[in-house]
Design the sequence.
């Protein structure tokens, strides 16, 4: 299992456009990818679930990856978050 923490820097937090792009990215991997904020964990392959977290600027989120391609998934999602959120 791989994991990383990220503090949201986008002024609008995780909003619809980047959340949709994040879902597209996570769905390209076979690994289970979870997103956690304030103790609430959701499937990072589901748009509504991600939006329901209400992650705003300055909040910390945790990603966990488990599966055959977890290393590649972790690297790709980490890069995405740094570049977009």
Sequence:
């Amino acid at each position: 299992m791989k994991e990383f923490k990220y503090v949201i820097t986008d002024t609008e937090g995780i909003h619809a456009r980047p959340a949709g792009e994040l879902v597209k990215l996570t769905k390209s991997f076979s690994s289970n990818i979870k997103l956690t904020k304030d103790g609430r964990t959701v499937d990072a392959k589901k748009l509504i679930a991600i939006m329901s977290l209400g992650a705003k600027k300055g909040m910390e989120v945790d990603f966990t990856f488990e599966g055959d391609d977890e290393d590649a998934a972790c690297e790709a999602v980490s890069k995405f978050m740094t570049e977009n959120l």
Summary: The chain has one domain: 2-84. The first strand starts at residue 2 and ends at 7.
